[in-house]
Design a protein that fits this description.
Structural class: alpha/beta
Number of helices: 6
Shape: globular
CATH architecture of the domain at 7-39 and 81-150: 3-Layer(aba) Sandwich
Number of strands: 5
Strand content: 5-15%
Distance between the termini: 15 Å
Length: 156
């Protein structure tokens, strides 16, 4: 059983659903002490941060390049500080950045929990192979985090 200190969990992946809120709410309901962090989920802010902070660019490549590098500062710091990285892959958009986050966390030796619908299993087989747990729902992620923090199974 872990001591009273909090776990630090980075929530990576798709930003178009409320899966993060569901994981956090389930963990709060279970009385877990977890500090959550994640990427900027305001798509516009994430895309525009480079040009807003450092000046406009004429070419889309350089606009994206500036934003990606500034977002990478946040992502790198928070993943390196995390005890666990949860990576959600959705079925509507391709999350290349999520795959990169999973690989980066695995390379650091940080435990990775992956969440995705069953129909993405084949496409994500290499990512799943590097993960220590593969979940389909936010509730399953919360149950894994609860077990990690408490060493107890639900209802026992």
């Amino acid at each position: 059983m872990l001591g009273p200190s909090d776990l630090s969990v980075y929530l990576s992946g798709e930003i178009h659903t409320d899966w993060r809120d569901q994981v956090m709410a389930a963990c709060e309901t279970a009385g877990l002490r977890i500090d959550f962090s994640g990427p900027v989920t305001d798509h516009g802010a994430s895309d525009d941060c480079g040009v807003v902070l450092l000046g406009e660019e004429d070419l889309p490549f350089w606009r994206d390049h500036k934003g990606a590098k500034i977002n990478a500062i946040r992502t790198t710091v928070l993943i390196e500080q995390a005890d666990i990285v949860v990576v959600r892959f959705g079925d509507k958009y391709r999350q290349w950045n999520a795959a990169f986050d999973a690989g980066y966390a695995a390379a650091l030796g940080t435990p990775v929990i992956v969440m995705h619908p069953p129909e993405l299993t084949h496409a994500l087989k290499e990512v799943d192979a590097a993960a220590l747990a593969v979940c389909e729902t936010p509730a399953q992620v919360a149950q894994v985090l609860a077990y990690v923090q408490t060493g107890r199974l639900p209802g026992r």
